[in-house]
Design goal:
The complex is a heterodimer of chains A (332) and B (275). Chain A is mainly alpha-helical and 332 residues long. Helix content of chain A is 68%, strand content 4%. In chain A, the strands form two sheets. Chain A has a two-stranded antiparallel sheet. In chain A, a hairpin with a 2-residue loop joins strand 3 and strand 4. In chain A, helix 4 packs across helix 8, helix 4 runs antiparallel to helix 11 and helix 13 runs antiparallel to helix 14. Chain A is globular. Chain B is mostly helical. The two termini of chain B are 47 Å apart. The chains are: A mainly alpha (332), B mainly alpha (275). At the A-B interface, helix 2, helix 4, helix 5, helix 6 and helix 8 of A face helix 1, helix 3, helix 4, helix 5 and helix 11 of B.
Chain lengths: 332, 275
Amino acid sequence: MQEGLEAREATQGSRSAGPRRPSRGLRPARVRENLSAYMFIAPFMIIFGVFLAYPVFYSLYLALHRVPTDSFDVFGSLRFVGLANFQLLFSDVKFWWSVLMTLYYAALIIPAGIAVSLTLALLLNNRLKAVAFYRSAFFMPYVLDMLVIGIVWTLIYSPHVGILVRILESVGITAFSERGFLGMPSTAMPAVVLTNVLKGAGFGMILYLSAIQNIPQSLYEAASIDGASGWQRFRSITLPLVKPITFFMVIIGTISALNAFVEVYAMTGGGPNVDVGGRALGATWVTGYYVFDTFYNQFRLGYAASMSYVLLALTLVVTFVNRHFLGAEEER
Amino acid sequence: MTPQAKTRIRKIAVYVGLTAAAVVVLFPFFWMIVTSIKQPGQAFTPNIFPENPTLDNFQRVLSEFGFARYFVNSVIVATSAALFATLFAALAGYAFAKKHFFLRDKIFAFLLASLMIPGLMYVVPQFAVINQLGWMNTYRAMIIPHLANVFGLFLMRQYMQTIPSELLEAARIDGAGEWQVFSTIMVPLSIPILATLFLLTFQFHWNNFLWQLIVTNLERLYTVPVGLALFRSQHEQSYTLIMAGSCISVLPIAAIFFFAQRYFIEGMTMGAVKG
């Protein structure tokens, strides 16, 4: 388009080109403008190229290679193995289990996150004195380090002596005392999810709050005149009008589930193990943690890279499916 | 019941709900601080207020267990990373917002598309690149790979597009060079977004545990989260010390958030609302 515009101007014979006047292809001013623009983006683009673009392709190279187990010179001795890593991956029970656990994690955290965020936003959407205080209180954990929050919750969840177990004991519930919340397969994942929901709810709350405050008050008034109850007003006015935010929450919830690592590292290390058909598999063994374990603990770079490619594919599929079936983005 | 009484009851119910939620959300931080000032061996006493509170745990983790060093490392890494990431995003954001150049829109679309790639994807190959550059166990390995912040560039461009081009024209007519236009017009007018991006990248790097764990294995280079994670794996039962280390890790960000929360909240939600 730029070129077309220039050509037109050139045929009109605008020879008295000022510093900004678009001119024929290689006019010094045009060259200078291009050069200076490239100078401005150069630092960013160089870093982007070396550390973000190149690695994506290098990762594909790694995924097609394997480090011989007897070698200490990791990068000098990579051996080409074709699609063997992917073949191995597709028959790796531990990997498919990790995908299942990731889906389980997403299935818990997305609805819970949305429910808590929306509830907080509705509560804050009242004329109150201390709105600013509550808003900051709910948002603050979102900016803090997941690792630390996970460690603190590990203390709270601990068996025998943890404060949560003590509180439950005081009302007569001792089911969790022996192994703690993170030590039992049935409660480990929900416990990780609870920690994460309480950490992240402030973010969704702010999004919902601004969406709710953009809804014209007249809609609610009209509904009230027609005799709609509070619940009906929520169902048929608030909920549809905050749908774009809900859509966004589903997408980022899925993506963060596919990337979940630190919370699992901090709290469970992928465990506790459950017996599935004679195999010990971790109740919080999400794919993100498996990638880390393969790479950092076992140092199988090629295998970890192939896993991360499957992760990328899943992310793209999920985003695509979300766009099509929830399809609310046009409204935004 | 009169309508006034009804509103009042409703209001009280809302306050009760909010307060209960705040207690639940903030309890872990309260518990972290309380545990960090308990006497060693009392980590698990259920008392809300500890007997004989002490600052010994902080003193011990800072001097005996190297957290003072970790803290300095965190400050170095987070500050320099935030500074350069903001600078690079501002430079590039200016060009993408205000200049016409070959392939501009294509390059920008390409950059935005890269936001779809899950972060975990980068970990292995970035580590390989760092290895090949011979950067293992250096500050630059912790800082440089994350200096191209595409989301930051996006925020920057959005903001700079709203600055009237006439101002830049006027400066050029007065003989200002490109760099002068950038530094004397764009930068001063973009202070709010620069501050936002600086704070967000500072926070990101302060908390960037996984990457810092991967590229360092020398204790003198550990940042606070890395030091904390490894301290915990060695002293699993010393919860009073672990909590003191945790405080050192999160309290700086909490304090910055307290004073600059507007920037955090706006910056973090901007992408969602506008994007």
